[in-house]
């Protein structure tokens, strides 16, 4: 990888979120808490979600987390919380899909700033297969925790 | 850049390794400092494998035709070479596995089915250490879970040595097996294998040594060790001693290997097979079910020949010289802390470190942009990381082809990393 | 020598295999008829391995640098290739082992530790067949001995087919597992895998298929099989599908693989490791402890690509054409009896036979003096030999590079053998 | 291997012993019976020995056997019985050593006809590693059975 690739990977936005992560720290209330690890490198995240609203039409009221990891994984958690908190779950899941498509696109997918906001900064990560997992760790944890709450709610 | 102990004609030696001439993205030359993960291969190993595949390929043992005879001879000659590389008392005690992990699991797995003397049960103790590679932890967790025995651990001192202060509580009459790594892949520490083996033998415990990092770096001569200090079993892996992947070695004393039940069942490991029952071949074949990694063994044979031609004492001296030089260089990087012994004479060539304020992933990434290949993560040694309160680290690991210039490139790249992450002013 | 079904441009295909140009002692050209034992390797497989070793060698999964990314990508691409070669429903269901024997033992060994649904005990039945390779017998003997379950056997008919007359006694509510070879390495028989699987699934038994001889010869498309007829697990070995040694494949349905406990413990197969306990990775990594056979997987990927480029249906047609031609040729040799089906359409390319008055060893030896490489012995199928009242046999086995001219050379050499042992006048 | 090698392997003497093996068939009396197999090819032999004389100074009174195998293994059993029957055990063991040296000599050892008699015909076998085991099968069985009787006698 070249110096340009490096700069594409470590965008200013990413380093900012890394230094000043949003929504970090575990908070109450929450309906589910999960713990995810990246087995290869050991990065980990403990993440809680708090959903409100009718079963089937929940909204993401809060996402809080505690995490250890590289700049990419930390910044990604921060951006993720910005993107999902306050959104209806269905909509947040769509944002997740869009982010996933970007990450799995090997650098060929054009990011949509209207949907992904600061998330577009991760476009450069998609070129580094080893780092894609870092960027997805918090999203996977969020999706897992959300699914648990929804399942519980629908019972 | 003349440092005492370096391999003579290092530039010529480097020419043996074609990959070292590669350039990476942006035209960067490769600075390969990830040899504890896997070593690079000299041309002679590759050529030997190609010659086998293009001219002598056939199955072994079973085939009576000329190709079969040639292939069998090459395969068994590889066993002789490996036996002499580690000074095995008998060449039949050398068992080919697919890697070090399989070799260690072979022991743990067969012990789970052992009856008599070797059987394990409630109250029996297996001792390992906190600095082991996962491949020398998980097999023993599975074994003790399955037999009801207890797994106990040697702890680590602050400076990365085994903490032997509670050896008398750990190695007792109840201890059936003690296992440890000879050289740590994370801390670099060289452990006192002889002393611990002697102690374990006093209570009648078996000793299993993980030599995955030792075999590449230290001259090993099992036959020359006093029998009380000689481990009963020893494992290493082909791809770290300039050999190919897909091949590992378990050496074991005949007495122990004869007593262990079979591991995998199938072709080559049998004496006779009948519907009612089967009987098994003698060692080494008893533990080599199915078609073995033939071309891999042949490649490993060429690899250990290559190392022996260089002389393992010279490889070791080179490693120590480079390690000392690297420790010096790393000490100049602000905010960098080395995990493990700081004296090159007490350690192998893997050096793990932290840089305050930059995650190891990010360090490795920036280094990679300068062509410097290191490893970042837990290096399959989570308990050792936990012991030092770190989640992961960056590791540089040199080998016989590493030059002082490459260490300089690493140190420069680390400086650059600090400035990239704006730590310059801290 | 134009026979319907041969691969078009057979002489060009043969040029892909460097070893076929070898001459043996006395200047004899090589007539390699031992492909059921191990196949020869095309240049593209060898070159792919060399390129990996010379330019991309690094450990996988763990390494974040450029070489590591290249190596990981090549390794995982090989998994995709293998998955598509057998039509695996999911690429994560493809597990790399060191050979077919390890793949089969992986299943038997983990079942010994399985709890719940998959657990085996007294009264449970495992069914295998009398025509299995030792590698698909001994693991099940060990499993049933260790769990107290009972091993039962499908017998064989006089003409070398499975005797299905007692299928209702063998496959019952007590039957937990049925295992069989798809194509016999001794008799050549192709077994009715779909019908037996359907029957076994009716009683809830798992089905394990040994595809070691099928994968080289038959197009396999697991995803296209109705799920009732699709085996739960399937094993084959790299070195018989023009790939290297040191690599095998276990395919298993996700449901079953997820339920099985881990096999070997170590690096790569874990989620986290702590001193108290460890958790394990998902498939495929859960079953791939330690550094996998990387360059071997990459070679296997090139091998299955080579076969797919030729087209497995064409390879199969070629095999059948050569087998038919060989059966005709062998029928002309006085005193020669073929073991197994005499109709090429019902069999694979391994043909075992006896010649009255000459021991198989002696047959193979005389053939070898003419450059004709065949196998003599029990071919790791002692129970099948016992079934036919013979202690050993001679086996010729063809592959995609075999020519009718080579079959002629075999038949001539057999005539010569008879005269050498003075059977001409009998 | 060439046609000449083949003829060196299959000497007239070997083919004769193969067609008309000496001392074949299991007989009484015997003090030990063993069963040996060659795992690679499946060749097998059941062999009995009958020793007479004082413990420590026994003589090989009889060796009888039943075997299945190739020409080399069959002929070797026949020649072996010729060589050992009637000999003091100590002397027979020396003959065995001489034969072993010949077999393991990779074709470089000159056979001594005075000691090995028809056994010299096996000189050609030594060049074929895969066949050396065939030639040694019966000898190994004999040595094993003899050792058992001697051990029993010395108790
Ligand atoms: C039918 C069958 N099963 C299993 C095996 C074992 O394969 P491997 O020796 O590669 O493990 C073989 C080949 O030897 C075979 O022919
Ligand atoms: C100390 C140690 N033990 C065991 C292993 C496992 O070796 P392999 O992955 O080849 O099985 C390694 C290397 O990864 C190691 O460094």
Automatic annotation (TrEMBL), chains B, C:
Its EC number is 2.8.1.7. Keywords: Pyridoxal phosphate, Transferase. Gene3D superfamilies: Aspartate Aminotransferase, domain 1, Type I PLP-dependent aspartate aminotransferase-like (Major domain). Residues 31-410 form the Aminotransferase class V domain. GO terms for biological process: cysteine metabolic process. InterPro entries: Aminotrans_V_dom, Cys_dSase_SufS, PyrdxlP-dep_Trfase, PyrdxlP-dep_Trfase_major, PyrdxlP-dep_Trfase_small. It is an enzyme of class 2 (transferase). Belongs to the class-V pyridoxal-phosphate-dependent aminotransferase family. Csd subfamily. This is cysteine desulfurase. It comes from Nocardioides zeae.
């Amino acid at each position: 990888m070249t110096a340009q690739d490096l700069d594409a990977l470590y965008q200013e936005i990413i380093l900012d979120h890394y230094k000043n992560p949003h929504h970090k720290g575990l908070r109450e209330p929450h309906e589910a808490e999960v713990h995810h690890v990246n087995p290869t490198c050991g990065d980990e995240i403990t993440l809680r979600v708090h959903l409100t609203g009718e079963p089937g039409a929940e909204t993401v009221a809060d996402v809080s987390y505690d995490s250890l990891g590289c700049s990419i994984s930390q910044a990604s958690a921060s951006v993720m919380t910005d993107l999902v908190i306050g959104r209806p779950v269905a909509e947040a899941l769509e944002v997740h899909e869009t982010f996933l498509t970007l990450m799995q696109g090997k650098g060929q997918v054009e990011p949509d700033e209207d949907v992904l906001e600061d998330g577009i900064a991760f476009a450069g990560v998609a070129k580094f297969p080893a780092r894609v997992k870092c960027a997805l760790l918090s999203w996977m944890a969020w999706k897992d925790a959300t699914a648990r709450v929804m399942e519980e709610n629908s019972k | 850049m003349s440092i005492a102990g370096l391999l003579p004609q290092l530039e010529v030696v480097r020419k043996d390794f074609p990959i070292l001439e590669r350039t990476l993205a942006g035209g960067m030359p490769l600075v390969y400092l990830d040899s504890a993960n896997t070593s690079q291969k000299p041309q002679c190993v590759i050529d030997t494998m190609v010659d086998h595949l293009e001219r002598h390929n056939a199955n072994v043992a079973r085939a009576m035709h000329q190709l079969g005879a040639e292939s069998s001879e090459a395969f068994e000659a590889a066993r002789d070479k490996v036996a002499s590389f580690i000074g095995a008392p008998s060449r039949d005690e050398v068992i080919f596995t697919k890697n070090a992990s399989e070799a260690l699991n072979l022991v743990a797995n067969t012990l789970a089915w052992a009856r008599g003397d070797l059987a394990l049960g409630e109250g029996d103790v297996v001792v390992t250490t906190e600095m082991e590679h996962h491949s020398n932890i998980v097999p023993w967790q599975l074994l003790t879970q399955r037999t009801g025995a207890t797994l106990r651990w040697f702890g680590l001192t602050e400076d990365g040595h085994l903490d032997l202060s509670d050896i008398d509580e750990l190695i007792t009459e109840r201890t059936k097996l003690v296992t440890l790594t000879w050289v740590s892949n994370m801390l670099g520490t060289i452990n006192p294998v002889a002393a611990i083996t002697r102690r374990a033998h006093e209570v009648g415990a078996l000793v299993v040594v993980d030599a995955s990092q030792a075999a590449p770096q230290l001259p090993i001569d099992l036959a020359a060790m006093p029998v009380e200090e000689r481990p009963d079993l020893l494992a290493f892996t082909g791809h770290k001693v300039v050999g190919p992947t897909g091949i590992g070695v378990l050496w074991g004393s005949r007495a122990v290997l004869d007593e262990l039940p079979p591991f995998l069942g199938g072709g080559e490991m049998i004496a006779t097979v009948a519907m009612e029952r089967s009987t098994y071949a003698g060692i080494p074949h008893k533990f080599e079910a199915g078609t073995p990694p033939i071309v891999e063994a042949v490649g490993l044979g060429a690899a250990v020949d290559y190392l022996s031609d260089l002389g393992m004492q010279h490889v070791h001296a080179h490693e120590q010289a480079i390690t000392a030089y690297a420790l010096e260089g790393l000490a100049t990087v602000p905010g960098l802390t080395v995990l493990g012994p700081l004296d090159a004479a007490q350690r192998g060539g893997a050096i793990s470190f932290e840089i305050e304020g930059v995650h190891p992933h990010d360090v490795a990434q920036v280094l990679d942009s300068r062509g410097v290949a290191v490893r970042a993560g837990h290096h399959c040694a989570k308990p050792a990381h936990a012991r030092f309160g770190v989640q992961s680290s960056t590791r540089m690991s040199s080998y016989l082809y590493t030059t002082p210039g490459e260490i300089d490139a690493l140190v420069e790249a680390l400086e650059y990393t600090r400035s990239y992450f704006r730590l310059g002013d801290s």
